Amino acid sequence: MKFTNLLLICMCCVMVAPAAWGQAANNAAKPGILGYLDPKTGAFRPVPSATDEVVDPATFTTFGGTVTVTLTITVKSTSLTVFSCQADVSVSDNSGLRTYSETATAPATGTGTTRTCKLTIPYAWSLATHATDSMSTSYFVFGNGASTTGADTGRSSSLLFLDNRPVPANGATTPLTAAVTL
Question: 33: burial class by Cβ within 10 Å (0-12, 13-18, 19+)?
Answer without folding.
Answer: exposed
